[in-house]
Amino acid sequence: MASSQPKKDRPNARFHGRVEAEGRKCAEPGCAEAGEFRAPPLEGTGFTGDGPPQFRWLCLDHVRAFNSGYNFFAGMSPDEIHDAQRPLAGWERETRAFNTTGGADRPPRWADFSDPLDAIGARFRDRMKQEAGRQDGKPLSGKDRDALKTLELEVDADRMALRKRYSELVRRYHPDRNGGDRSHEARLQRVIEAYQQLRSSPAFA
After folding, report:
1. Which residues are paired to 34 by β-bridges?
2. Which domain range does residue 161 map to?
3. Domain for residue 112, yes or no?
4. pLDDT of 44 over the 60 cut
């Protein structure tokens, strides 16, 4: 059964660049069709380049007519046309370097930062302190460093300091030392695991 609805003689979404807008008419004088395709403005419109480009909106037929008459080389001299047609045209421009060795994108100097409360400096020193090596040259793994942090020990602590600190923390968190209070059991377990890690570490051998 044939549809009673009149057939719309309008471009559909398959046309590339179509932008539908209710009530926008074609900019071509005398055309009553919808302006759904963008085209550059005509010369002499008064556009100065201050702000977004001012485009014209044309219907499908008029934008096709515009495109068929468009000439990229209009106004160019023969030499300019020859240069624009070369296969490598446009590739001779210097590209921006992304490394810092050539002088481009150099990071700011430390002195350029304003740090009146020493927040940046203190954090940097703490990080360097955590990543510092032992003076005796013994290696520390990532787990060793985490264990030292749990026990609140310095990286150069020796085996005697390790045992002393472990005993102090066990007495502090063990339920028998706190009237049966078991609220510190999780902390005590972390202390025991950290001690076991460091006791078998080459740094405390």
Report:
1. 25
2. 138-204
3. no
4. no
Global pTM exceeds 0.70: no
Residue 4 lies in a domain: no
In a domain, 108, yes or no: no
Q: Is the pLDDT of residue 1 over 50?
A: no
Count of domains observed in the chain: 2
Residue with tokens 């510190």: 184
SS3 180: coil
By residue count, the chain amounts to 205
Q: Which contiguous run of DSSP H or E holds residue 37?
A: strand 37-39
Q: What is the pLDDT of residues 109-124, one digit of tens each?
A: 766 667 667 776 777 6
Asked if the structure places residue 65 within a domain, the reply is yes
C-alpha span between 73 and 35 (Å, rounded): 27
Report in angstroms the alpha-carbon separations of 36 from 24, 33, 52, 104: 8, 9, 19, 44
Q: Longest C-alpha distance within the chain, in Å?
A: 98
pLDDT digits (tens, 9 = 90+) for 57-109: 899 999 999 888 877 788 888 888 888 777 766 666 666 655 555 555 566 67
